[in-house]
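Handout, section B. The chain below has 204 residues.
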Amino acid sequence: MKTTTKLTLIRYWQEIRKHWFLTSAVVLFVSLASVSDVIIPLYYKDFFNVLTNGQTPANQTRALIGILVFVALFELTRWVMWRLASITNNELQPRIIADLTNQCYAYMHKHSFAFFNNNFVGSLVKRISYFTRAFENIADRFTWNILPLIVEMSFVLVVLLRLNLVLGLAAAGWILLFTITNWIFATYKIKFDVQRSAAETKST
């Protein structure tokens, strides 16, 4: 199973490399949107600090307006980046899925007539569907869940470490513990996923 998983991921990576420009664009847009998500609360912090620092009303007004302008700019940047990421991703994934599907069927056509007599064609088609759908699921998880989490957590840790070393180290330790725990449970769950897939294939 480990060998099959490795070969599958290598096949996916080879296809991603063929579309490096669109892939890089998606990563860039998602990263910029995630950074904007983290920066905006910092301006809110400054907003409330200005309200309580005892400045004159005129100075407070100018400072607050300036902060709100920056918040609006980052909100606009975040919205634009997420929209661009969605558009680019909708262009990228169908191309890769189409290439993977064509390669699978081209490989199938190289088999002999006896091969198709000895194998249920419906199950072969289903396996190809699983293969291409798995890429979509993995790509979506990385693009919309893992990548934003990595960017946001990295930025948050940098901010915390600058403000309070102990608090930053505690947050880093918690993230590490959380990641290791999830990895252990995910590894344990794989065997049940394999059994479920085998049962679905048999049912089909």
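Note. The chain has six helices and no strands. Compare this with the example in section A.
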